[in-house]
Amino acid sequence: xxxxxxxxADLLRVMDRLRDPDTGCPWDxxxxxxxxVPSTLEECYELAQAIENEDFPHVAEELGDVLFxxxxxxxxxxxxxxxxxxxxVDTLVAKLVRRHPHVFGGGEIxxxxxxxxxxxxxxxxxxxxKREERSAKSQGGILADVPLAxxxxxxxxxxxxxxxxxxxxxxxxxxxxxxxxxxxAEMREAxxxxxxxxxxxxxxxxxxxxxxxxxxLGLDAEASLRRASGKFERRFLAMExxxxxxxxxxxxxxxxxxxxxWEAAKRAERRPR
Length: 273
Prior knowledge:
Blueprint: H1 8-18, H2 26-30, H3 37-52, H4 56-79, H5 85-99, H6 119-136, H7 152-164, H8 173-193, H9 196-216, H10 221-245, H11 255-270
Helix pairs in contact: 1-4, 3-4, 7-9, 8-9, 10-11
């Protein structure tokens, strides 16, 4: 049966009902700020996966799940007198208008700026405004407010991007690649010495340099690694299928046989369809 499309007000009302202490959902009633953080992260990763797969009906669904997380936090904030959904919207709109002076003339939503600007100048202005905001929050350091809770790859990329804003950066990708080769050489020395603390440190340096190389190439390290993991998964599953078709298992195969299956899986991906 068709129904009139629901609106944002309906979503907020659903949240009210779910948190109603008398008639709401027992699970939703028990939640607090900390307890729903894992769900928030999971929903964001599911959204990223749907986008990677270009599964746009699923993207719409996952966006709804992410929006629900925002509404949930808004309800929790309202119950404790901290903030409301209206506060979230007001803060967001004010920040967007403030950070886009090249679009919103006079700081007004309908204010129009007719002068053209380059992408580079927009980025410079954006970072300058963010620095002012950090200073106003007593977070004046260049690396201030880069969240510790970020996954390691995007956090490394964000730290490097902030540092590059004050010209603390490699001149080009070739220089980063040379640094990566230097770090690999140092890893060989650490392995030869058998020093676990040094091996661990050099492994971190290699990963950090890989992220830096991705950034200099205009790539997102997290997305690149996610695609590489997906490629590995596809090929490994193809190996399993080949082994099953031959009446055997991967566990029973020699290293040479496994390598042969891997190469076959790679060739199958390259083959025109």
